[in-house]
Design goal:
about 110 residues, alpha+beta, Alpha-Beta Plaits, 4-stranded antiparallel beta sheet, two-stranded antiparallel ribbon, 3 helices, 6 strands
């Protein structure tokens, strides 16, 4: 079976305290329970806001540049993710659909090598 990343995308100004409610947390808990029961969930993790991120870039002189924020400048960032083991892309997409509904956010589904 192939492992898939199911990533939740949030806008850069996403504020969990203002945008998440009990119903959303309940829906995510239900989805997590369903994934565990199906035996497909390998790992799940929510990420802190982008203001807590640091990016590291190797410099030509051998030094390391460390900057605040995510690696790329974008209007969205990954807010959390699951690693699932599914039989095929269609199954992974179905879990991604459920994740988009529970998290009320866009979702990316991508297989690992």
């Amino acid at each position: 079976m192939t492992q898939y990343l199911v990533a939740i995308h949030h806008p850069d100004n996403y504020d969990p305290a203002a945008q998440e409610d009990e119903a959303m947390h309940r829906d995510i808990d239900i989805l997590n329970d369903e994934m565990v029961a199906a035996g497909i969930r390998i790992f799940v993790g929510g990420l802190r806001p982008v203001r807590d991120a640091r990016s590291l870039r190797a410099q030509p002189d051998g030094k390391m540049a460390i900057t605040d924020g995510p690696y790329i400048e974008a209007k969205e960032h990954i807010g959390g993710f699951w690693v699932l083991e599914a039989t095929n892309l269609e199954e992974a997409l179905e879990w991604g659909r459920k994740a988009a509904i529970a998290c009320r956010a866009p979702v990316e589904v991508r297989p690992f090598f």
